[in-house]
Amino acid sequence: MIESDELLSIRAAELYYEEDKTQDEIGSILTLTRWKVGRLLAQAKANGFIRIEIVHPRARRLPLERRLRETCGLTDAVVISATGVDDPDELQSRVAQAAADYLTALRPVPRTLGISWGRTLDDVALHLRDGWARDVDVVQINGGVSLNRRAGTAASTAVSIAQKAGGHATLLPSPAILERLETKQAIESDRAVSAVLDLAAGADAYLFSAGAADAGSVLVDSGYLTAEDVSGLVRRGAVGDVVGRYIDAAGAIVDPGLDERTVGLSLESLRAARLSIAVIAGAAKHAVASAVVGSGLCTVLVTDEETAVHLIEHHPPVQDSEGQRGTA
Amino acid sequence: MIESDELLSIRAAELYYEEDKTQDEIGSILTLTRWKVGRLLAQAKANGFIRIEIVHPRARRLPLERRLRETCGLTDAVVISATGVDDPDELQSRVAQAAADYLTALRPVPRTLGISWGRTLDDVALHLRDGWARDVDVVQINGGVSLNRRAGTAASTAVSIAQKAGGHATLLPSPAILERLETKQAIESDRAVSAVLDLAAGADAYLFSAGAADAGSVLVDSGYLTAEDVSGLVRRGAVGDVVGRYIDAAGAIVDPGLDERTVGLSLESLRAARLSIAVIAGAAKHAVASAVVGSGLCTVLVTDEETAVHLIEHHPPVQDSEGQRGTA
DNA sequence: CCGGCGCCTGCTCATATGAGCAAAGAATGC
DNA sequence: GCATTCTTTGCTCATATGAGCAGGCGCCGG
C-alpha cells in the first residue's frame, strides 16, 4: 500500500505542478480528500521527487551557501548555479559576476581593498559596474608588474576596479617572484615597495583568487616560473597558488625557499584579515579551493556549485587549524 | 530597470523555493512589499526561470500529453518523463510500464484485445500485474508463430497478457510473411486462420507497437526478411513497420506486393478501430511514430518525452488524411 | 475476545497567496 | 507646460494551503 501511495503522490504532483490544478481539484480527479492530496504532495517533496531549479545565469544556490558556511566555518559564501554549464570560461565569468555583485553589496564599504591579480580578478573587474562604490582605494597585495604582456593586465585590473569606484589604485612595483633572495630583500626594503606593502597590510578587505598548480598558471604564463618548476612543486604536494605562493592541501607553503623570494602579503596576514574574499571557480581548482578554505585563507568564498559540493563532501580537509575567527 | 527587476525576481525565487521563506519574509529581506514579491515570483515563472521537474520513473508529462492530443488529433496520449535516461532499454521499459498502467486503468474494460508482438509488447506483458483486469481475451492480430526462437515470445506475450487478466489467448497460427502469394491466400482461407482473423477484426481494442526500419527489426531477427530486404524498403521510403507491414512517412504501404503476402489485420482495419493503442519509444522510432500518428493508425499513443516533442515539432506530417474520428 | 496503542483520516482554524481594483507615477502627445 | 494614457503600486477580499487536533481504524498483547 505504501507503493501505491508513492504512485499517487506522483500523479498528484503532475496535476499540481504541471497542470496548475488546485489540491481540491486534484482531490476530485483522484477521488481523494483535499487533505490527503496535500499530504501526498508533501510526501513527494520529502522523498525528493519534486525538483525545483532556478535557471538563470545569476541564480545562486542558497542552501549550498549555508552548508558551505557551516561546514567550512566561513563567514559568508556565494555559490552560483552551474547546471548545464560545461564551458569553463562561462563558469568563470558567472562566478566573477557574482563576486562583483558581492563587492557591490558589501557593507560597510571598505576604504581600501587589497587585491591579487590574474584571469579571475580581471574578470571580476570587468563585471563591476561604474560607480559600484564610492571612494574605494585599491592596493595590489602581490607583485607582478612589468614583466610581460600579462603583467599589464595586473595593473589594469587594479586601476579598473579603483576607477569604477572613484578611488585610486596603488600598484606594487615589483616582480612577483625574484631570482635571488638578496634582490627580494633589497626591493622589499625600498621605500616605494615597502610603503605599498604596508598599505596592503592595512587594507580593510582583500579580494583574491587562486591558481591551479599546472602549466597553465599565470605565473608560468608570465614567465616567473617554468612548467618544470611547477611540476616540481606538484611533486612536493602543491595544489595551487594564492597571491603567488604555492600551497599544499593543508594550506602550508610548499617551498619555503621559493616563498622567501616571493613579494607580497604573507599568507599569515591574509589568514589574520577580518575580511578576505576568495573567488575560485572550476573543476581544475577544486584542490586549491579545498586548501584555501580548509586552512582559513579566506573568510568569504565565491564559487560555483560543483566546487561547493566538492568542498562540502571533502569536509574540513584540515584537522582543526581554524578557530581564530568566529563561526556564525 | 527591467534588468534589475529580473535579478530581483531571481533573488526572490531563491528565497522562496530554496529557502522556503514566505513572500512576506522575502519582502522584508529585499525591502519590498509582499505584493511586489508575489509579482516578481510570477514574472520569474512566466519567464521560464523556474523549472519544476518531477523525478520518478513513473512520472508523466501532462502538458506534453495535452499538446500531443491536440496537435495530432489523438483521443489520448501518455508521455513519460525521460530526463536523464540515456539507456534505450530503460526508456522502453518505462514506456511499457506506462502502457501497462494505461491498460489497467482503461474503462470500459475491453472484452477482447487485439495485440501485435515484438520486444515492446513483450515488455508490456511483463509489466502488467496479475489480475490487471477480469476476463479479457487476447487475440493476435498479426502472424508470427513458430518460425524460430523469437516467435515463441510472440505466443508467450499474448498468453501472458491473457492469463494475468484471467482470460484466454487466441494465437494466429501463421507465419508473419509468406514467400508466395498463393500460400498466403491458402493459409488465410484456412478455417483455423480465418477464424482468428475474424476474431481479431472484431476486437474491442488494439494494442500494438511499431518497429524501426533497420536491420535490428524483429522481422529480420525472426527470419521473415533479410537485412537487404529492409534496406531495399528503406530506399523506397519505408520508415518502419506496424503489425508486420512496412509504411512510409505518410503511413502508406511501401511495397504492396510484400504487403499482400503479410498475414494479419490490415492497416485500414486498424485505422477504423475505435480504440487502438500504439506503444512506441526511443529515438530510433521517431520516424515511424510520426507515420503512425500522422496517418491515424492509433487513437492513443504511449511514448516518451523526446518522441512526443519530435511529433509535436514535426507537426502533422500528413496533410489532412485524418478526420474520420472525433477530435476532443 | 477485548483493551490498549499507534497510525491514518478528515476536520477547524490560522496563514499564505492570488485576483481584482483604485490611485500614483511615468511616458507620451499636443 | 499640460493633459492623456499606460504602467506600476499598494491595497481589499476571496481562495488555497498548511498546522494541529479529535475520532476511527487496524494491529497487537493479553
UniProtKB/TrEMBL annotation, chains A, B:
Gene3D superfamilies: 3.40.50.1360, Winged helix-like DNA-binding domain superfamily/Winged helix DNA-binding domain (1.10.10.10). Keywords: DNA-binding, Transcription, Transcription regulation. The keyword DNA-binding applies. The keyword Ion transport does not apply. Residues 61-312 form the Sugar-binding domain. GO terms for molecular function: carbohydrate binding; DNA binding. InterPro entries: NagB/RpiA_transferase-like, SorC_transcr_regulators, Sugar-bd_dom_put, WH-like_DNA-bd_sf. SUPFAM superfamilies: NagB/RpiA/CoA transferase-like. Belongs to the SorC transcriptional regulatory family. This is Sugar-binding transcriptional regulator. It comes from Cellulomonas humilata.
